[in-house]
Amino acid sequence: MIGLGTYAFFWQHSSLAQHPLTLADMLQLTRDEGVGLFQICDYEAILGYSAAELRDLRSLADDLGVTLELGTRGVLPDHLASYLALAETLGATLVRSMINTAEHRPSLAEAESLLRTTLPVFEDSGVTLALETYEQVRSNDLVSLVEAVASPNLGICLDPANSVAALENPIDVIDRCAPYVAGIHAKDFAFTRRGGWVGFTLEGVPLGTGLLDFDHLLAAVTPEARGINLIIEHWLPLGETIEDTIALENNWNTSNLQYLRSK
Q1: pLDDT at position 197, please?
Q2: 103 phi and psi angles, rounded to 5 deg
Q3: Is the distance from CB of 161 to CB of 188 less than 8 angstroms?
Q4: pLDDT by residue (tens digit) across 111-143?
């Protein structure tokens, strides 16, 4: 299934927007695009929602026909338990996370121990934890960690663009992680020369216009056959004005949806 998420509306729910979008607004815009999946990712405010607010959010999603996923960072058991509780309330069956946070950077051995503590309750609840590929943890280490924990409810959230910053070839990341993928963040990227031709900038571009070999990703992972969702994200830099940036963000959402639907 194709979905949108909070990163697809990054600038529209930021404090720079004149009228920042709420989660309810983003859910409605997702439905308006004909999409039935939304990932609430790295949206810390949700931890402060009351039980009534969470019930209302779930009710709205149900009324709109939008399935929810969640995303956070870190592998500390108490933190993941909080997100598991959110997932159960919101009907989400996938929680994306990352190994490191700004405050906690466990070794791989420590991360394995923490995940072994956490995964049994995820298994009991039928919720999958998907650890994202990114530059702070090399993809071979991430695969080794998933293999070592060996839980049916632990997988990988594949985002090969992130690993470019660690000088990993996206094709290698895709092939290495493919058997363990539980979710996909779909975004394209490109390098452009900086001013004066001194160095490069790595930033997002609309799907199908950059360096990501998306056809290879689909062939290697086979998400449709395996029931793996694709969540659209962007690396969209701030333009001259926030209004121009928001307009472009919405254009990218529409064009990226068209691209994925054509595959």
Answers
A1: 87
A2: -95, -20
A3: yes
A4: 999 999 999 999 999 999 999 999 999 999 999
CA 78 to chain centre: 21
Give all strands (DSSP E) within the chain, no chain letters: 2-5, 37-41, 67-71, 94-97, 128-132, 154-158, 181-186, 188-193, 200-205, 229-232
CB 134 within 8 A of CB 98: yes
Note the pLDDT tens digit of each residue in 40-50.
Answer: 999 999 999 99
> What is the structure's pLDDT at 196?
82
Can you state the angle between helices 77-90 and 108-125, rounded to 10 degrees? 30
Please say whether the beta carbons of 233 and 252 come within 8 A: no
Give the tokens for residue 217. 């990703």
Rounded distance, CA 246 to CA 248, Å?
Answer: 5
Positions in the chain short of pLDDT 50:
none
According to the model, what pLDDT value does residue 195 have? 82
What gap in Å lies between CA 141 and CA 171, rounded to an integer?
16
CA distances from 38 to 17, 25, 177 (A): 21, 12, 23
The CATH architecture to which 2-261 belongs is Alpha-Beta Barrel (3.20)
pTM for this entry: 0.97
Region of residue 222 (phi > 0: left; psi between -120 and 50: alpha; otherwise: beta): left
**CB 37, CB 3: distance < 8 Å:** yes
Predicted local distance difference test score (pLDDT) of residue 19: 97
Q: How many CB atoms lie within 10 A of CB 234?
A: 24
